[in-house]
Sequence to fold (93 residues):
Amino acid sequence: MKKKQSRQQIRKLYLNKCFFCDESNYELLDAHRILPGENGGKYHDSNILVTCSNCHRRVHSGEIVVDKKYMSTKGILVHYWRDGQEFWEAESR
Fold:
């Protein structure tokens, strides 16, 4: 019997790389919740950002600050700050 894949696994397979550094080794990829679980954040497409383990730690340490995802005419944009600079980037870059 085939095990059902979690939303996190599906998201990692679909995007296949870290949003921030393009790391593509599946074993190193994480599904980061933009709104943390303790604040009610769920593993849902609008709240998941695929990151490698290194960038995931940078997010949790505050080096990278993710605001949220926004829908636009250009698709899904992620608003974040890294090293003091503000960015708006398409999720499927």
Q: What stands out?
A: The two ends are 35 Å apart (CA to CA).
